[in-house]
Please model this.
Amino acid sequence: MSDSYDVAIIGSGVAGALMAWRLAEQNHRVVIFEAGYKGETRDEMVQRYARTVDKTPSAPYDDGVSYRYAPAPRGLDDYYVQKGPNKFKSTYLRRVGGSTWHWLGNVPRFLPADFKLRTLYGIDRDCDWPISYDDLEPWYCEAERAIGVSGDHDQWNGIHGAN
Amino acid sequence: MNDEEMSQAFMALSEMLTGETGLPVSLGTQFLERLLRSFPRILMEDTLQIYIEINRNGGDIVSGVRDTIMHHTERGSLARELISIWYTGQIKQPSGESEIGLPEHYFSGLLWKCIKAHPPGMSGGGYGYWTEAPE
Model:
């Protein structure tokens, strides 16, 4: 294994993995650092879920060993600094592939208006995004192609500015 | 009641209580074993024997099952867990503890057919199946 790389990527979740893939396609030398371990196979996780009495969202993943190399991000305050009144309530996985293994499987886009909540609706606690929906739109398409998102595009045309 | 008689009666009562016919015998054998680990054998034999007699006597079998099995404290408790094991693969033991069996018991549950869905973690096909309209 080489000790010289062009790019180091922290985390092997979907974002890190896609970036690594695209960079490697361009012949860059990429190393991915992942705090978690490889983990069980999908089939093993499904079997674990089936054998668990309390079928919580985390039930497939509690194998007791995934966090051997790094602290487990199990609490709501372990990743984010949650200063607001309403905490972002989501859990994470520490393993190769990241929390993509623990994902609902839906990828809704932001609407154009979501980028201008302050301008459009005067919501004081929010500010407008520094970029617009149009800036992101091509990348939505790239990501959806890579993930394999399906849907009838024609159904969305013209809705809330979608095109 | 010998084991074969018990097995046959168990399958017959299972079809009656679940409302399903053609239940897999291999699964029934495993479910019977699991229920016998949690409930006294004498209770199982008693319940099955009563069902055999209800059938033999003819008449309103549903009322007979309801009145002499479902409304009976111990037999009713066993009968409800019999239904649960076929539908969910899981039972509540008399102690109050939940007992779950092999993964196949969960995946084979009758509830999936009942609600027209597949178990969590079991997809409707290979990669890309979601691009096709459901049958």
